[in-house]
Amino acid sequence: MRVLHISRTLPQEMLGPMVLSRAVKDAGHEMKAVFLPDPRWLSKIREYAPDVVTWSVMTGSHQAIFDVNRFLKSKFDFFSIMGGPHVTFVPDCVRQPEIDAVCIGEGEGAIVDLLNTLEAGEDPRGIANLCFDDGEGGLIRNPVRPLVQDLDALGFPDRSVVYDAQSLYRNSPRKVVVTQRGCPMQCSFCFHNAWKNKIYGARNSQYVRKRSVGHVIAEVQDIRSKYPLSFVHFLDDIFNLRESWLEEFAERWPREVGLPFDAILMANMTRERHIELLKDAGCVYARVAFESASDYIRNTIYKKNTERRQLTDAAGWIKKHGIRLGSLNMLGAPGGTLQDDLDTVRLNIECKVDHPLCSIVQPYPECELNEITANLGIAVAEYDAFPSQFNRETTIGVEDRRAIENLHKWFPILVRHPKLLPLAERTLHSRILAKPLLLAYMLFSEWLVTEQNGIYHRAQGRKGLRTWALLDFTTRVLEKGFVRAVSKIGGTVVSRMAARLQMGDERVVAHMD
Ligand code: B12
Ligand code: SF4
């Protein structure tokens, strides 16, 4: 069977279609991908004539995907299947006649069973993990198969499916790698809690899985033998999850790979020893999720189970060992106040965060935060109203909405330039300043990315004109400004450039954890 994965060009390559493609190809089928915008997308689809079209769906971009799928269904004949977090939690969308099936939870086994069944001309409606419209106003929702326990047995993700279709990802010297699945924490705003408990009813011992260090290293060596690679971005939600794993990784990585990398750490698991190991292994940038300075918001609302002291300790050790410190923060919490959010700015200032990343909280489907916002009477009415852009506006009915949205734009600037705090406080309620602040936020975020690029260059020992910070910053800002100005006219070249320029923007890492 011929499978085609269709996706928007996102700020970084996606592993979902790569792992699906590994399973699809190992089972003897074919898989390709198309990334939008692509002026030749329709002719590519016509030439390839896929039997099955796959989509990965996140809340916020779901409507656009449903629309494109509907359009394609009116032109071509294929079986359409969607997977990923949005449809896992909102499978009802399969009632739309153009969506033939949705996959709940992990998809490797389900997609292979589907292809084999369709090829044999049999009825796929009994396949585990898949959900169908029953034609009578209800759903056929099959049970999920057990979680994949041995991640090494899945093989390496098939990168060619993505890199052959989108050269921006292939040519980038920075590649994403994941070493685990699952998370033991219970954070109310994160999909893990709902995925583990509501979808799988799993214990942490089944849910939290790690690849062997040898398998990860072999994958990175394999990538390096085929594609440009000088920096590894580990996607793991908690890189310091298991100390014995970290010890082995830190011992082998510098000898067997020797590339600089970045990672996310969980403050309540972090010891200074972890930072020493990471530093020795080549970590140049580590992010810690602060979320909120308020103990009530962080632990009662967000359920991070993390003391303020654990945040400041982890941050202090990262700085002490000369690693760039990033923080992840969320403003506009249900039950929180503007003062709580200003305290979060102050906590970041106290910790001297180099790369402060901030979003405005969104209660995604089936996450516990929805129940919390519903109990407070400020829940999101419709997921369809979710912004598809990175969280820059509030979707829940919090007080001081305007001020929180303005503070979000000020956030990275204030953390790096605390003297501006009194000025910022005077502007928070201003409506006229909203747009200029957004512009300042975007420019400053570009500057943070420039600083980050500088670290990557230094870690590689690179020198020369293209490593000059001011030049890097100016070139990217001018290019983006130019693309914005002329993109209204449309055109192939501009679309391509716009897609390229998304690479490395602040959203790449901003929402994670
Ligand atoms: C890396 C990452 C990104 C990257 C890459 C996104 C991507 N599409 O891969 C970037 C930075 C671009 C990104 C952006 C966003 N992200 Co993000 N991201 C992640 C992260 C950390 C890892 C994803 C990953 O690679 N997992 C590993 C792969 C192997 O798993 P997977 O993609 O889930 O695929 C498996 C299954 O879901 C399923 N599957 C997936 N697709 C399909 C398709 C078919 C046909 C089938 C059968 C099965 C199937 O099978 C796969 C293998 O088992 C996750 C959190 C996490 N730990 O998973 C958040 C996460 C997916 N992101 C999330 C969000 C909210 C976003 C944004 C909306 C943020 C924003 N507001 O801008 C955007 C949306 C972008 C988009 N349109 O896809 C949420 C999604 C919640 C939801 N209800 O939708 C998550 C779960 C984070 C969270 N804490 O809740 N993200
Ligand atoms: S927010 Fe981070 S620590 Fe919390 S459950 Fe999600 S991945 Fe785990």
Task: Outline the structure in words.
It is a single chain. With 513 residues, this protein is of the alpha/beta class. 46% of the residues lie in helices and 14% in strands. The protein contains 22 helices and 15 strands. The strands form three sheets. It has a seven-stranded mixed β-sheet with strand order 2-1-3-4-5-6-7, sandwiched between helices. Strands 8-11-12-13-14-15 form a six-stranded parallel β-sheet, sandwiched between helices. Helix 3 (62-75) links the parallel strand 3 (52-56) and strand 4 (79-83). Helix 19 packs across helix 20 (469-487). It is globular and about 70 Å long. 43% of the residues are buried. Residues 501-513 have low confidence and may be disordered. The structure holds cobalamin and iron/sulfur cluster. Cobalamin binds at residues 10-12, 14-16, 19-20, 54, 56, 58-61, 81-86, 89, 103, 106-108, 110-111, 178, 190-191, 235, 237, 364-365, 390-391, 507-508, 511-512. Residues 10-12, 14-16, 19-20, 54, 56, 58-61, 81-86, 89, 103, 106-108, 110-111, 178, 190-191, 235, 237, 364-365, 390-391, 507-508, 511-512 line the site of cobalamin.
